[in-house]
């Protein structure tokens, strides 16, 4: 332990065994020991005692649209990863679409990796994309280290990323199951969407009616049937409809390999409070009613929903028009996700241990990074967040780091302030001051 370079102490360290006063010893960017709070400090190590502030493992956000290259005016690796670091996220996995090119061939993956290199303030990995015509590219992408594949069951919002019909979904899923990969799915059924009233205009109630719960429920049912038939591993992205939860619980009880995520905006915002014309709240599937939100919280508590991720999906402000039908859909949540979720979680009697499980441990497990990320324990990367859970702040868009400072959280008072974030033993942000980028590009572990 004589080579320890850093020792972090806190009265409240969140470990897999619970919260306790502890001393976290770091060498070579890795946690080498978790000792009692008053343990002797190795000679020569930098010692930081954060006192009553909480030390928690860096969050792993497996659902981020960085959009770089191609739509860099929407977001980019530099700005997105700064927002992540400021929000306590130390690993993000980039979605294959909204960048041009999308991550659908190994060549395109290399383009994205080249662009991200040197700009990443946190560790970055990549999902691949499953399109109607790229089944032959899936295995090479898997071999090149993507963490899994994303598909849409309804139009994605961008022309270069078409959705899969049921037949093509089966084909892609069979291929992915053949090499032991995971397919992550935007589950809304296009026929239900087409049949729903498409009013357009600025009324949020009309937008909500245009993306009914049944569209999600049906798509989830189809996905479960395909996963069962092919013995494939699937993951439901950004679940909003609480009505799909019984189907998922039942499938899992039958042994179907299905996991589920939801997002901070579905857990913290409600349809009832979205002002008409307020396109910063538009996302697909939509933010639903308060009663639906409680179903999601219950499912997090009982384990039916595994994890919480941002689905950070920005655009330029001019694309957020007051017509909900044509406005860009996507909510920018990277910097605020931890505080937003914690604010609502604590009101419902959850502890920070629960939030860490949903936003760090389980997301690390989803992408197979759970030997390196997602917990404060010996052998893991020293990705650490100093968090003041009882402090509050009011969201000021000017203080956000993502490129276009559009936010659905403006003016809200949230609990929990990220004071500092450490990536592999180096402090990458403290009180709003950033170091040069120190993030690495990650590949799948296995
Ligand atoms: Zn997304």
TrEMBL record:
Pathway: Nitrogen metabolism; (S)-allantoin degradation; allantoate from (S)-allantoin: step 1/1. InterPro entries: Allantoinase, Amidohydro-rel, DHOase/Allantoinase_Hydrolase, Metal-dep_hydrolase_composite, Metal_Hydrolase. Keywords: Hydrolase, Metal-binding, Zinc. Transmembrane segments: none annotated. It holds the Pfam family Amidohydro_1. Its EC number is 3.5.2.5. Belongs to the metallo-dependent hydrolases superfamily. Allantoinase family. Homotetramer. This is allantoinase. It comes from Streptomyces lannensis. The lineage of its organism: Bacteria, Bacillati, Actinomycetota, Actinomycetes, Kitasatosporales.
């Amino acid at each position: 332990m004589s080579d320890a370079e850093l020792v972090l102490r806190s009265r409240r360290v969140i470990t897999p065994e619970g919260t306790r006063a502890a001393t976290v010893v770091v060498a070579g960017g890795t946690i080498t020991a978790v000792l009692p709070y008053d343990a002797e400090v190795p000679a020569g190590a930098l010692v930081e005692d954060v006192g009553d502030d909480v030390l928690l493992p860096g969050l792993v956000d497996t659902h981020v649209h960085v959009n770089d290259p191609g739509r860099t005016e929407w977001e980019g690796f530099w700005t997105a990863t700064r927002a992540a670091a400021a929000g306590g996220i130390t690993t993000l996995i980039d979605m294959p679409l909204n960048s041009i090119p999308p991550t659908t061939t190994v060549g395109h993956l290399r383009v994205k990796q080249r662009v991200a290199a040197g700009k990443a303030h946190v560790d970055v990995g990549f999902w691949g994309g499953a399109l109607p015509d790229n089944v032959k590219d899936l295995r090479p992408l898997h071999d090149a280290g993507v963490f899994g594949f994303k598909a849409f069951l309804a139009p994605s919002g961008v022309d270069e990323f078409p959705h899969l019909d049921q037949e093509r979904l089966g084909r892609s899923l069979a291929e992915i199951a053949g090499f032991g990969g995971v397919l992550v799915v935007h589950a809304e059924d296009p026929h239900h969407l087409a049949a729903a009233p498409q009013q357009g205009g600025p009324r949020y109630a009309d937008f909500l009616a245009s993306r009914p719960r049944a569209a999600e429920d049906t798509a989830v049912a189809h996905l479960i049937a395909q996963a069962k038939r092919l013995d494939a591993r699937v993951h439901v992205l950004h679940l909003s409809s609480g009505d799909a939860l019984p189907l998922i619980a039942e499938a899992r009880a039958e042994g179907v390999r299905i996991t589920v995520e939801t997002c901070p905006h579905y857990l913290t915002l409600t349809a009832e409070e979205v002002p008409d014309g307020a396109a910063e709240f538009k996302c697909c599937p939509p933010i639903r009613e308060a009663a639906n939100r409680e179903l999601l919280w219950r499912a997090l508590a009982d384990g039916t929903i595994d994890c919480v991720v941002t689905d950070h999906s920005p655009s330029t402000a001019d694309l957020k028009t007051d017509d909900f039908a044509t406005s860009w859909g996507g909510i920018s949540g990277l910097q605020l996700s931890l505080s937003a979720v914690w604010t609502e979680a604590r009101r419902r009697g959850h502890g920070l241990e629960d939030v860490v499980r949903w936003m760090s441990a389980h997301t690390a497990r989803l992408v197979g990074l759970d030997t390196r990320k997602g917990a404060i324990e010996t052998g893991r990367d020293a990705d650490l967040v100093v968090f003041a859970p009882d402090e509050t702040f009011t969201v000021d868009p000017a203080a956000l780091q993502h490129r276009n400072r559009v936010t659905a959280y403006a003016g809200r008072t949230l609990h929990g302030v990220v004071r500092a974030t450490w990536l592999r033993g180096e402090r990458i942000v403290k009180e709003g001051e950033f170091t040069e980028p120190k993030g690495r590009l990650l590949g799948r572990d296995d």
